[in-house]
Amino acid sequence: MASVTSLSHSVEQRLASALSATLPEAAGADPLLRRSDRADFQANGILALAKKAKANPRELATQVVAQVVTGDVIGEIEVSGPGFLNVTVTDKAITENLAARYADTARLGVPHAAHPGTTVVDYAQPNVAKEMHVGHLRSAVIGDAVVQLLEFTGESVVRRHHIGDWGTQFGMLIQYLDEHPHELDHKDADGVSGEEAMSNLDRLYKAARKLFDADEEFKTRARRRVVDLQAGEPQTLAIWQKFVDESKIYFFSVFDKLDMEISDPDIVGESGYNDMLHETCRLLEESGVAVRSDGALCVFFDDIKGPDGNPVPLIVQKSDGGFGYAATDLSAIRDRVFNLKADTLLYVVDARQSLHFKMVFETARRAGWLNDDVTARQLAFGTVLGKDGKPFKTREGETVKLVDLLDEAVERATAVVAEKREKVGLTDEEVVENGRFVGVGAVKYADLSTSAVRDYKFDLDQMVSLNGDTSVYLQYAYARIQSILRKSEDARPVAHPELALAPAERALGLHLDQFAETVLEAAAAYEPHKLAAYLYQLASLLTTFYDQCPVLKAETPELRENRLFLIDLTARTLHRGMALLGIRTPEKL
Ligand code: ARG
């Protein structure tokens, strides 16, 4: 299906050509069009152009207006204020544009990006043998939305879940399991639930820790295990694998709760880059990017200093020969750039790791792995705060388990859904399913509706509220349309470009027409919150539309068909937009 040129773009083109006809040196200049309350659009680009050409802006604007082709897309155009152009588009153009979007069921007229490339998105990266917390939630939710947005615009996306599955902490765990070999056995042949898997790991972790702290000999054995692990000793690796497998059972259960598809081959944790670590160090050392300092292999930066004024290096290899987080990330960059052939690397990671990524990216640039065409960027996200504005903790001061949060969100949402079940006519299964979609949607939306870098307050009461900027509000808007469409009997949604539009219809229509631009912008800037804001405004415009324009009781059959068409396109836009954010839109709510 062909993509649809938006009205704003058509208007922009007409203004640009009128501009260059009036003032040849303004060819290619941006008329700076935006939505306006005075008319449909206002262009204020003439002010700067007039200044540059030493012309009177109002006069220039008047000359431009005389050159503008009107009648098809532009209905009226007039000069206002110091030299703005106020533009009103025709009702016919609005309806025709929307009809073209409607006909494109799959993409609603959204074009692909002009120059798609290959992006690796590093997101949803929990740590083996550890509970997932709200930080992992943010990475998963934001990362998933960015992946969906990019793929929708035609980008080739490679997902990478850089799980923490390597490091010295495994020595203690492996040694413990070796000495207590049946601790991870599953009695049930079908395996264990995610919850059981986590509690097994937790129990093991605590027991191993206790022994490690109390028993010097165990400590020594555990340390030796770290060496064996790094040397790839088969029996040690086999035990390590058990921890990874058990953790994956847990991770997948959480991703499933999150209604998120994560596939096993995309999980390439820290251990996945083991074979590259030596080579990475060699390349850095030979090129002089990294130098030996007190036995460690380090990279120094002029602008990164500790509180004592001494430079803080990025340590690629420790003096005992061990590799850390930085070596793995640098190797992952080589893999992503040279094997996966990516031109963009994105890292959806907590802002508290920003210094790490700054140093890693700069190192990779110096090594020539990154450059102007192949770039890396951290999509840093802020901290999740409790209602009190302090970092989110349980009453006992412990980190909140992600699973508990999700369960509570679903529980509350189910209560909200159940209240209306009679009225809406929901079966037991539908109450359960909708409760899940509403609860998980609420959590995702709260995360996605504010800019990622900002800290945000985790407030379940607010998240599942039916009023305000919440996913439930959007889900209700969608379900309400479906209910009207069900009740419309034999009246069908049909566009009637010959009909005059009421102000609320125009406002809704012009906003629907902006969907494509919003999606492309949100994708290009990696800012799902722009799409969330768009959808919220769409639902608000729909509410105003309902207040002013009866649908099923419209005065004429044509008007009814046209309004059914408008709300159906609104529903499709909501559905598509929410799907890009990873949120479901139940048919009945
Ligand atoms: N596992 C890490 C954590 O839980 C996040 C990994 C981020 N990705 C990366 N390539 N370093 O903090």
TrEMBL record:
GO terms for molecular function: arginine-tRNA ligase activity; ATP binding. This is Arginine--tRNA ligase. Belongs to the class-I aminoacyl-tRNA synthetase family. Its EC number is 6.1.1.19. GO terms for cellular component: cytoplasm. Gene3D superfamilies: Arginyl tRNA synthetase N-terminal domain, HUPs, Isoleucyl-tRNA Synthetase, Domain 1. The keyword Cytoplasm applies. Monomer. The keyword Ligase applies. GO terms for biological process: arginyl-tRNA aminoacylation. PROSITE patterns: AA_TRNA_LIGASE_I. Signal peptide: none annotated. Transmembrane segments: none annotated. A motif ('HIGH' region) lies at residues 126-136. It catalyses: tRNA(Arg) + L-arginine + ATP = L-arginyl-tRNA(Arg) + AMP + diphosphate. Residues 474-589 form the DALR anticodon binding domain. Keywords: Aminoacyl-tRNA synthetase, ATP-binding, Cytoplasm, Ligase, Nucleotide-binding, Protein biosynthesis. It is found in: Cytoplasm. Residues 9-89 form the Arginyl tRNA synthetase N-terminal domain.
